[in-house]
TrEMBL record, chain A:
This is ATP synthase F1 complex delta/epsilon subunit N-terminal domain-containing protein. SUPFAM superfamilies: Epsilon subunit of F1F0-ATP synthase N-terminal domain. It comes from Stylosanthes scabra. It comes from the Eukaryota. It is found in: Membrane. The keyword Flavoprotein does not apply. PANTHER family: ATP SYNTHASE DELTA/EPSILON CHAIN, ATP SYNTHASE SUBUNIT DELTA', MITOCHONDRIAL. Keywords: Ion transport, Membrane, Transport.
Automatic annotation (TrEMBL), chain B:
Belongs to the eukaryotic ATPase epsilon family. This is Uncharacterized protein. It comes from Stylosanthes scabra. Pfam families: ATP-synt_Eps.
Amino acid sequence: MFRRATTLLRRPLMGATSRRFSTDLPAAPVEDSTFVEAWKKVSPNVDPPKTPLAYMKPRPATPTSLPSKLTVNFVLPYASELSAKEVDMVIVPATTGQMGVLPGHVATIAELKPGVLSVHEGNDVTKYFISSGFVFIHANSVADIIAVEAVPVDRIDANLVQKGLQEFTQKLNSATTDLEKAEAQIGVDVHSALNSALTG
Amino acid sequence: MASAGGAAPFWRAAGMTYITYTNICANLVRNCLKEPFKAEAMSREKVHFSLSKWVDGKPEKPTIRSEGSEH
């Protein structure tokens, strides 16, 4: 009764390795095919003009199976801290709170607040204090982190942080105009974040 | 991310642009560094630009601004 079982069971295994998942997202097309076809119908002898799509780099393909590592590009206006580094996880200080980014994270754009960025690779954790910036997470597990100023946490001077915190708390209490209040508030936010970075 | 079309961040409400905000944050962080990193960072803060007003399609004499942090 089960003599044909082995052949029947073997069939799906042989096919699956060569076929891609139906949920894979292929790379974005380089040209608009409907436009090109319509052009060729009207004037088959003239080459269709290039559309802006043709000059842009297409969105790369997004495989369904999750990549095992996150590729991180961390740039500053004056230097490139990390360039296409493969890591396991990064925790970014987004305005909505600490956000952990793992490979396969949904595509996100997040604004960063002053805080600590930690890069986790195996058992190593590298921490940077970021002044503010943005993080762009792409669907293919590439994360671009941009910041104006980023320093390793051990370069921060605790005394200066305390002094700054006191100074800005005073300014906040004595501020009159909206702009002064906003500047003082920024000072308090940044120094409190620096403080937690040193203690946390 | 901020709520859809909701309250602007406090600095935006006070009339500050994002660039001003982020430059202030960066300056404050640079001021809290240990030496010698602080000295290196201070050189990054310097801006050097020349500004000239245009009148009747012709530029007037330019003013050169070369200084540290703006405020």
